[in-house]
Amino acid sequence: MNDFTVDKTTKTVTFSREFDADLSLVWDAYTKPEILDQWWAPKPWTSKTKFMNFAVGGRRFYAMVSPEGQEHWSIQQYTSISPKTNFNLWNAFADKDENPELPGSDWNLTFSEQNGKTTVRIRIYNESLARLEKMLAMGFQEGTAMTLKNLEELLATLSHQK
């Protein structure tokens, strides 16, 4: 992840990452809870999906869990899906009872493959500048870099199992 960009005037964060894996595998890693929970948290934290329905209007409700058991919940609601090329979701922090902490953010994830390598481009629009600044203060850039490294390692393992 070399192109992490923050634009406070548009309240957006953009970044991309190329993976040495085919598009189907990378798509599955972002859309199947049993795979998501293996990489969607910076170590030593883990991801725990309570439920997920990857469909337009469907939701994922999950927590990032610390080694001490501290849980930070989030809701993701899928707003559009173009299979294996793009999906959008609305994201908000939440409490353990699924009550969102507003405002949230809109995520746009685009997938493309060339020569067996898959690139994921992510653009996150925050509904408020305060939310963007809170996200960055919580270590979003560093956490995302660690999380994408987790995915890179998992994809290498899963690619060899095929």
Question: Which keywords apply here?
Answer:
162 residues; Alpha-D-Glucose-1,6-Bisphosphate, Chain A, domain 4; 8-stranded antiparallel sheet; START-like_dom_sf; ASHA1/2-like_C; SRPBCC domain-containing protein
Account of the 3D structure:
The protein has four helices and eight strands. The two termini are 26 Å apart. With 162 residues, it is an alpha+beta fold. Strand 4 and strand 5 (71-82) form a beta hairpin. The chain has one domain (2-160): START domain (Alpha-D-Glucose-1,6-Bisphosphate, Chain A, domain 4). Strands 1-2-8-7-6-5-4-3 form an eight-stranded antiparallel sheet. The relative contact order is 0.23.
SSE order: EEHHEEEEEEHH
- Estimate what percentage of residues fall within beta strands: 35-45%
Count of DSSP helices? Answer: 4
Contiguous uncertain segments of 5+ residues: none
- Global mean pLDDT: 95
CATH arch. level architecture:
2-Layer Sandwich
Q: Classify the helix fraction into a percent range.
A: 25-40%
Spatial strand arrangement across the major sheet:
1-2-8-7-6-5-4-3
Q: The biggest beta sheet, please?
A: 8 strands, antiparallel
Secondary-structure-derived class: alpha+beta
Number of beta strands: 8
Protein name: SRPBCC domain-containing protein
Family: Belongs to the AHA1 family.
Pfam families: AHSA1 (PF08327)
InterPro entries: ASHA1/2-like_C, START-like_dom_sf
